[in-house]
Structure formats: structure tokens, C-alpha cells
Amino acid sequence: MSPVDLSLPFACPLPISDYPTVLLAHGGGGRLSHQLIDKVFAKAFANELLAPMHDGAVMRVPAGRIAMSTDSFVVKPLFFPGGNIGELAVCGTVNDLAMCGATPMWLTAGYILEEGLSMETLWRVASSMRQAADQAGVKIVTGDTKVVDRGKGDGIFINTAGVGLIPEGIEVAPLRMAAGDVVLLSGDIGRHGVAILSVRDGLSFESELQSDAAPLNGLVTSLLTAVGNDVHVLRDPTRGGVASALCELASAAKLGVEIHEKAIPVRDAVRGACEMLGLDPLYVANEGKLVAFVKKERADEALAALRAHPLGTEASIIGQVTAEHPGRVVMKSGMGGKRVIEMMSGEQLPRIC
Amino acid sequence: MSPVDLSLPFACPLPISDYPTVLLAHGGGGRLSHQLIDKVFAKAFANELLAPMHDGAVMRVPAGRIAMSTDSFVVKPLFFPGGNIGELAVCGTVNDLAMCGATPMWLTAGYILEEGLSMETLWRVASSMRQAADQAGVKIVTGDTKVVDRGKGDGIFINTAGVGLIPEGIEVAPLRMAAGDVVLLSGDIGRHGVAILSVRDGLSFESELQSDAAPLNGLVTSLLTAVGNDVHVLRDPTRGGVASALCELASAAKLGVEIHEKAIPVRDAVRGACEMLGLDPLYVANEGKLVAFVKKERADEALAALRAHPLGTEASIIGQVTAEHPGRVVMKSGMGGKRVIEMMSGEQLPRIC
User: Fold this and answer.
1) CATH code for the domain of B145
2) Helical H runs in chain A?
3) Which residues in B lie closer than 8 A to residue A112 (C-beta atoms)?
């Protein structure tokens, strides 16, 4: 996803000029709260489901299965190369729903604002959420705003929760992993974490890198359309990176996962930054990648479907599931050696999402 | 709802003894994150929908309408007379769904924890959420945890979002308000706000008052069972109190609302505290009350249904809807005078929910 384009009509001009910053009263439920909702959120998100301004939104669903997911976002800084907290908040929940095999439909947005936040920053974030929602084909249908006193928050925290509809016949879940499944990765890893680090206070370094933040529901639809329910498991390797995601799944499914180091794409800039900072790209967060476990016989079709989508052009098969070493992930190095991949311990990169 | 009973089996003992406080790594997506989820949240909330520990939860729904709602909670202090942030987080979203005429079913829980938070506090809050969810008959089905560095948050912030199912034939919405409707209030007002204020730093005063925080879905079911779709509008008067809720609805429906001061129950202790603090109880938050707009001919049945429920024993008819003064709320005083009730301006009580 490209960086926020503030030239779109709804992003300009800033609609509240009388209060340049957020006040405690903007969260008090009175006149200023209503002004904030009317002039910022209702204007940025405008849609027919949000319009009634009720305590909640009402939608019609067909009989079947829904998925629900939630994510809070505390990324620092709020704006980073390739994205911002608003875009991330939409993509994060859209992607969690997509990883359940669901078609993401509706999002809620909960804001915790720090007193003194610039109204312009809030507007840029809200506008960006609208753009990301449009890109993902979802609607933000209801929300909530709280304001905390100066020094008790950090600018903006956003929670999004979402509901998606799961197509008939699709069941994507960790426990469907089976020995023999191939493991696919949709592209190169580590870009989001490194992009954030490149602009951190006291750590900034020159880099052309941009976050890979993107809504993955279109990519998942391509995959499910190609191989249907032979997609067994999907996961977006965010915090903790590809390593932690695979460890978690292997442990849940009580099966072994074998991956091949050479098959995992890493940009030179990411590799360089990681060497400089003492990080392993396998543990660095992504916000626009997925790993897919697919029935072996459908591997080529799955790979072709991923590669045919703009977000999956660099997709590759990175490994397979084995009945050996249940619960463990083992990586074969380029030199032929093997090492056990452990779940991340400690904290590599705080507040990257 | 009674204060948290920590004697319940799942609330004791504290399940993580090796880390007495929350570390940044508890939000990093690695080993400590998993320990926190397994030992605190999965244990407190245990249910079959949460169990798969996927990126989201999957539920089956019938064809029809669903309601979605969200609320973030930043109440200060975390524990107050009659409740705590966890209980509030469950009741708040349950009540918002109920105000849409929906039967609340599933909640998500998103935590933003401050580094250094006591693990015992977190456990007490999570246990209390489970108790409140049980009381309301809802399940917490998926969640997320982020940790921010010390001084960038304030202990615990919680977001909940929820989904409820709207029964066939029920349509509760601000625009259904009609001239002639009676306005019912389910009990005495202002207790939540005053209970919070009574324990605020630098302001604490002696009071026996407890918050009225409670899940209102049972009360709504009683009302809908009695008078069905002749319930036109429901609203829980939280931030901004009964005054702001009525102003908001009058403005949305473009109708006038007339209320009678004498009909609105206020406890002596609330009235006394409000006089001392210069507050108007009509603007003070409630967390376990509702106002209902009901077709005139069904007023007695509606009142009887509310009073028959433990949370509505003090319910009363407080006014009616009129085609006069559209968009305005007018209160008749005990002395026969009239005054216009304005939406709250400014901030009376920051961070009461």
C-alpha cells in the first residue's frame, strides 16, 4: 500500500479549525464530543451504516459462519515510511479476519487520544483509515472516542475490531495442518519492523525501505478461489515475525515444520539493517505478508494464484509439514546445516504495531 | 452488579508468579506474550470459541440482522466502589448492543497495558471480566494485548467490541421516536459518576455510594417481551448523563422531549455529593440505567415490565415526546417552571468510563 495521499477530497481541509488540539472535553460525551464525531469521524468514514449514529451499527447477514477479530495499535512513531497507525489499524484487523478464511466486511474503531494531540494529526489518521478501508472493501460502521490527560497516553492508540463472513465450504484453522502440507510465503520479510526502526528516536538510519503494510483479503480470495478448502492454515506473521508464527502453529497442530533458509526472500536493505542492529529478519514483523499451509498436491496452483496477485509476486514455497519433531520448527541453512527455530523470547522491537 | 468476588475458583491463585509485573516483552508476540495469553486471558475467559487460539473466532449465525458496537475504557481509578474497569468494559459493550435491541452474544477484548502494571491487578481485572460476561450471558471469544512503555499509558486501557443478534420484528432506533411516546427511566441517576469521584485523588469523600454498573440486556429482554416493537428507542445515559442522552435523541429525531424533574429518582447521597461538587445529577454518568421511548398506549405495560426486573424496580415515566420545540429537551421543575436542557458543554468528569 502506498503512503497516505492527502490530496483526496475528503482529506482536505481540516474540518475543525476552532480547536487546534484535542481537549479532555472531546471525550466527555457532550457538545465537543459530538463536534469531533460529526466533523472528523463521521466525515472521514461516511457510509450508510454509520449514518444513524446509534450506540451500534446494524447489518444484515446470511445464515452461516462469521469471524470476529480485534487488534489494538500503539505503533511509535504514528507516521512511518510506507504507512501510519490508521492504515495499520485497518489492515491489521482486515488481515486477521482474512487469516480465518473470512471475507472482511465491517470494522469498529475505538480511539484513545491524549489531551493535546494535534487535530490535524487526528484528521490525517482518520482519513488514512478511510482510504485503507476503501482499498480493503470494508466499512467502518461504529466507533468510540476517549481522551486521557496529558502524559497518560501517547498521541493516539487505536483499536479496531471486525466481522467477516466465511464462505460456505471453507475452513481455515491451525488444526487443519497435515503432514505433507507445503508452506508458502507471499513475499519478502522484515520490511515493516525495519521501516519503523529506521525512524525511531535515537536510532534513525538512512533507508529507502517502506513498510509492507497492506490489506491481504484480496490475496486470500485469489488463493481460496484457486485451491478452495485445500488451503489448510493461513497466518500473517506480524509481531515475532515468520519464526514466531510458524512456532505457534507447529505447537498448536503438534506437527513439525521444516523450512529452507534460501527460499525465504529478504531484501538487501532489510538484511543490512538487521545485521547492523543485531536482529534476525525471521523474527522481524511484517504487516502485508502471509504464510499458507496448503495440501501438497495443490502447491503449484496455490503458488501461481499468489504470484498472480500484486501482493504476492514474490511468493515462494518455503517448506513443508512433517510428522517428525512435532511442535518444532527446523530450518535448513544454505550450507546444508539444520537448526531449531525457537519462538522469540524477550522483546526485539517494542511498539511496532 | 455486586463488587468483584475474588473467592470464585478461577480468580485464585494468581497464575503467573515468575513475573510480578507486566514487561514490554509481554506484548512482543514471543514467548512471554504466549505465557500471558495462556495463563491469564485463556484461563480467565476459557470457552470453546476462544480455545482454537486463532487470529479470530468463528461463530455460526442465523440469517438476519446483527448489531456491532465498540467502547474503550480508560476509567480512573481502575477499581472503584461497586466495580472496576474490567466489569465496566463488559457491561459497556453489552449495554450498547442491548440499546440496539440486540441480544449480545460475543465480545472481543483488546488490552493496552503499561509496562510495570502489577500482574495481580491484571488478573483481578480479567477475572472480573469473566464474571461480568457470565452474568450477561456473553462470551469473550478473541483478544489482543499490547504493552506500552512506562509513562505512555496508565495501567490498563481496555477496548471491547461486540456482536449481538437482533430478534425478528424488533427495530429499536433513534428515528423511530414519535410524538406522544412516553419516556421511561429504569431507576435513579448519577451513581456511577459520583462513585468514581468519591475515590479520585485529591477529592475523596466519605460515601456509601456504589456504581450502578450492570449489564442491561436482561432488562431490555423483559421490556421487549412485554411490548415488542412498540419500544421505539433505547439509550443508556452514560457520559453526559440523562440530559445529554435526551438532547442527542431529540436532535436526531427532530422532535421535542419534555421531562418532569420530580419524576426522576436521585439518591440523597448523589444529590448531596453533586451539591458539594457543583454538579447537576442530570449530567452525571450512569452505567446501569436506560431510557426507553415507548408508544403511549403501552406505557403501563412497559413500566410494569421494567419494574418486575431486579434492575428496574425504581423505573418511572419521566416525560413524553412532543412535536413542539423540535430538537429540544425541556424540563418542568417541581415549582411549575420550565427550563431548556442543553447538551453538556465542557468536561464535568474526565475518565469516568
Assistant:
1) 3.30.1330.10
2) 31-36, 42-45, 85-98, 119-136, 191-197, 217-227, 241-253, 268-277, 299-307
3) 72, 74, 112, 157
Is A66 close to B163, i.e. CB distance below 8 A? yes
Q: Are residues B273 and B238 in the same domain?
A: yes
In this model, does residue A6 exceed pLDDT 90? no
Flag if A29 and B239 touch (Cβ within 8 Å): yes
Residues of A in contact with B164 (CB under 8 A): 56
pLDDT over threshold 50, residue A3 = no
pLDDT score, position B18: 78
Mean pLDDT of B247-264: 97
Q: Is residue A317 part of a domain?
A: yes
Average pLDDT over residues B336-349: 85
Closest partner residue to A70 (CB to CB) among B71, B108, B345 is: B108
End position of a domain, from candidates B166, B201, B223: B166
Residue B13: pLDDT band (50, 70, 90) is low
Domain assignment present for B7: no
Determine the 3-state secondary structure of B323 from DSSP: coil
Distance between B7 CA and the closest CA of chain A, angstroms: 30
Residue A148 CA from chain centroid, whole number: 26
pLDDT, greater one: B278 or A215: A215
> Is the per-residue pLDDT at A47 higher than 80?
yes
Query: Considering the domain boundaries, does residue A88 fall inside one?
Result: yes
Question: Grid coordinates representing B68?
Answer: 456491532
Highest mean pLDDT among A2-11, A107-116, B198-207: A107-116
**pLDDT tens per residue, range B112-150:** 999 999 999 999 999 999 999 999 999 999 999 999 999
- Average pLDDT (A93-100) is 97
Q: How much is the mean pLDDT over chain B?
A: 92
C-alpha A34/C-alpha B343 separation (Å) is 10
The span from the CA of B132 to the CA of B45, in Å, is: 11
Is A58 part of the contact surface with chain B (CB cutoff 8 Å)? yes
Q: What is the ipTM of this complex?
A: 0.94
**Is residue A278 in some structural domain?**
yes
Distance from CA of A225 to the nearest CA of B (A): 20
Domain of B75 in residue numbering reads as 24-166
CA B91/CA B5 separation, integer angstroms: 16
Which of B:123-152 have CB within 8 Å of A? 141-149, 151-152
| Locus of grid cell 513443508 | A320
Residues B211 and B337 in one domain: yes
- Cross-chain residue pair A24–B157, CB shorter than 8 Å: no
Q: How far apart are CA A249 and CA A178, in angstroms?
A: 11
